[in-house]
Amino acid sequence: MRNLLLLLILAGVCRLSAQSNQLAQQYFMDGEYEKSAELYLALAEENYNPFYFDRYVSSLMNLQRYDEAEDALKKQIKRMPDELALRVKYGQLLEQKFDAPAAEKQYREAIKSLKGDHIQITQLANAFIVLTKYEYAIETYERGDKLLKGNVSFAFNLGDLYRRKGDVEPMISNYLDALVEDPRRGRNVQTYFQRYLDSEGLEEAQKQLYARIQEDRKDNPVYPEMLGWILIQRKDYKGALRQARALDRKLSENGERVFDIGTLASNASDYETAIAAFDYIVENKAPASPYYLEAKREGLLTRRRAITNGYAYTEDDLRILETAYLEFLGQFGNNPASARIAIQLAELEALYLNDLPKATEILLRIVELNGVEENVRARAKIALADYYLMQGEVWESTLLYSQVDKQFKEDLLGHEARFRNARLSYFRGDFEWAQSQFDVLKASTSRLIANDALDLSVFIMDNLGLDTSAVALQTYADAELLTFQNRFDEAFATLDKLVDDFPGHDLEDDVVYLRGRLYHKLRKYDEAAGQYQKVIDNYPKSIRLDNALFALAGLYENQLDDKAKAQQLYETLFIDYSNSILAVEARKKYRELRGDPVQ
Questions:
Q1: pTM
Q2: Helix, strand or coil for residue 336?
Q3: CATH topology for 465-594?
Q4: Mind telling me which residue stretches traverse the membrane in this protein (predicted)?
């Protein structure tokens, strides 16, 4: 009973103490310092706590009762000389009394009184940090390092303090020291570097890492790993690849980090570096290794993108790529696993080497091959239908489009096949049925399909109701089909005939825009730019205006090497034509060119 009574009394005291603490806290936050001082003093006398005493002194200082606060601090410092944060508080009091020299003396005395105690060092540094006295906190940690003789490191704390001060060089140096001491901090250091280092800061980090690598006799992999990451942030994929290959050899890895660099470089259109990365894996890893086959595939795909992405290429370049595809298929065979590669080869044959029969033959084998994934077979059918259409075999095309539409009715593959079938009807002059299909496809979950469907639907609606427009519209549709079939001379001639037969027709702006597309496909970029600019200058109300702006911006960005002009055009598009279906993409492109991180 006696023990139970004692427990009940203690519980009551604790409950009262907690209530007093909450009340004191509320008084302090409300600025009622007389009441908070009284309560915190009672709490500190009842059960000393550094927080209670600090709040008591702070309350007195807010009341400008400096003499009382000073007496209390002096007594407490004498009673607890090892609690060095008290000297920091005393220094703060002296500063408020405008006695800066005396305040500095207290700060120096606190640092001088440090012992080799990790907790004491941390508490003193934190006391300085609370007052944003980062220089004193830095001195505290540096003296702590000497007292502890390297048994405990404060490198990460020092990195944080230099970051708060904005001192980039020592910040980087200390974070790198912390990283070496504990490689698990790598993600934290990268986060800080990404958040707080600009291009000059990243360059400084790169310099420091190069110097450390040259001086490091232990060949610590932490340095080249961080250097590779820095180089990626600076978009120096070639330099990052050098580090990745060196680490792959040194650590006998499976090629994963090299593969990742290749993927990043490819996505950034640094095709030379990407190809070098994928080739390294193919040349240095066994065929059974986990990244060999994928590197082989990506190497082919990257070579194809390098050649066909609007950049300069020759017939020889295309033939070299064709040979690489054939070698791949010769090594791995024509089977379900290599079907996607075969589809890419067919595209190269059809669209770039103009060998439609060969492309058709390749795709027919995939369509008829047992074991092929159905979505891959459907991709092959859509491509095969395109190539049949390019050869004028309309019925074969519509049959294949319809098969995919039926099999993947609610899937994006089905939407794509339905769009192409509707476009085929548009080419053939069945405008009303085509428009009805485009209207349905405007709700597609694929933004690209929805945008294209909306574009064609509006185009047909604008031109179908005009007098004699069915003939003019059919002529224009014929020119678009000829463009699709790469019959460029005939397409130009058809457009000229349209202008001659229907002078002043509302399709004039569309004719100019389509001429731009034709020149674009022919890689006559200056002529293409001239046609797009003509739409912008001469047809301010044209429904092709946003398309022309976007296409012209793309030319300046990718082929005409004028990023500033491209940025200006993208900005015009998303500001002046914000209702355009291309406005969102234009804003994204604008931010990329400006260097903003894009989500």
A1: 0.73
A2: helix
A3: 1.25.40
A4: none
Cβ proximity of 514 and 476 under 8 Å: yes
Indicate the SS3 state at residue 469. Answer: helix
What CA dihedral angle connects 107, 112, 117 and 119, to 10 degrees?
0
Residue whose structure tokens are 């950049």: 311
Task: Identify which of 245, 242, 249, 299 has the alpha carbon closest to the alpha carbon of residue 274.
Answer: 299
**Whether 349 contacts 322, CB under 8 Å:** yes
**Inter-residue contact 257 to 292 (CB < 8 Å):** no
Coil, strand or helix at 235: coil
For residue 273, the Cα-to-chain-centroid distance in whole angstroms is 19
Using alpha carbons, select from 486, 562, 565 the residue that is nearest to residue 520: 486
Of all residues in the chain, the percent with pLDDT exceeding 70 is: 95
Angle at 60 between CA 56 and CA 62, to 5 degrees: 115
Q: Report the pLDDT averaged over residues 178-198.
A: 93
Distance CA 25, CA 52 (A): 10
- Cα–Cα dist 116/144, whole Å: 7
**Amino acid identity, position 165:** K
Cα 208 to Cα 222: distance, rounded to the nearest angstrom: 13
Contact by Cβ (8 Å): 193, 226: no
User: Which two tokens mark 129?
Assistant: 């940090």
Token pair 């330099």 in the structure block, residue: 239
277 and 228 Cβ atoms separated by less than 8 Å: no
**Ramachandran bin of 354, using left for φ above 0, alpha for ψ from -120 to 50, beta for the remaining angles:** left
* Across 44-58, 89-103, 106-120, 448-462, least confident range: 44-58
